[in-house]
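Obj: model holo form, ligand = guanosine-5'-triphosphate.
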Amino acid sequence: MKIPATVITGFLGAGKTTLIRHLLENANGKKIALVINEFGDLGVDREMVKGCGIAGCEDEDGNDNVIELANGCICCTVADEFLPTMEALLERDNLPDHIVIETSGLALPKPLVKAFNWPEIKTRVTVDGVVTVIDTHAVDMGRFADDEATIQKVRESDESLDHDNPLEELFEDQLQCADMVLLNKTDLVEATRLTEIKSDLQARVRDHVKFIETDHGQVDPAILLGLDAAAEDDLHHRHSHHEHDDHDDDDDHDHHHDHSHDEFESFSVSLGPIADPVDLENKLLALVDAHDILRIKGFLDVPGKPMRHVVQGVGPRFQRYFDRPWANDEPRTSQLVIIGKHGLDKTAIEEALAS
Ligand SMILES: Nc1nc2c(ncn2[C@@H]2O[C@H](COP(=O)(O)OP(=O)(O)OP(=O)(O)O)[C@@H](O)[C@H]2O)c(=O)[nH]1
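Output (holo structure tokens):
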């Protein structure tokens, strides 16, 4: 029997890591191997998953069950990073019951699903389902949409024109590839708006795709895992804005596609100890206002506190909390990864944070 693999996709900050933590905490003995890929080089997601103290991060043979792919975007590094990782995973004596893959928020899911047609993998693993996590709060704030009236005008003037808001295109690609859509962050959206968002998104997915509403990704793993979609056999139904020719669905080894991350960039900033995290958050908020910043995440060293302080920013929304004690052998540092649209003024941002 093939090992089922679930691909978790969704834009930056939608709640993928939160969902996966919940999934691992409620796995009920199922051996899950997690492959994480993130945009930005700090490895925050892996830390967030490992920081939860879940038993079973390592299997009996001491193999790490949380595998991080090097910085970069999984859909662009399938051949170099993802396939060797999968092959190594499949060579283990102690095979997982299920593989969960968290893509970076900027990844296109389709090239990744396509990689499951590689002969080395196809006989052993199947894509059980693509789960797309939606930040309903961000959708409510209109963050993925251009002004609808403007788009409509462009379309009316030339139907062949594809508007090219990179955020919206990614969002649509992630929706089109979904076998299940999780409307997450329901706690931040009014019920009537949620209904409207749902019916809008239902018109943008393939037929029969199920929607689940979640608060902090809390969904029974039995609903999420076991969709039995064999998505790798069904690629031609999953439209992508980023296909370069009509043969994109062939089972060939050509994984070129015209998706580039030139539209986005990320960098990390190291700060000294942060005595006043509230003051830092205010600075970050001002920076999000002034620059095209989409996502900020990282950890702070707050002097006098034994615990590490987590900072999570999604658009203008910030969350901070102490998550776990600093380990004895771990340097206490303050580091943030900042992800935004291309052209971020790194110097200005660093200066503002250093002031
Ligand atoms: N209010 C609210 N916050 C949420 C919910 N789900 C996640 N969050 C918060 O949103 C922020 C981002 O969540 P993550 O799970 O890290 O999102 P992600 O999709 O993994 O982010 P990237 O890997 O950077 O793309 C964190 O501060 C979470 O605590 C939710 O349902 N409600």
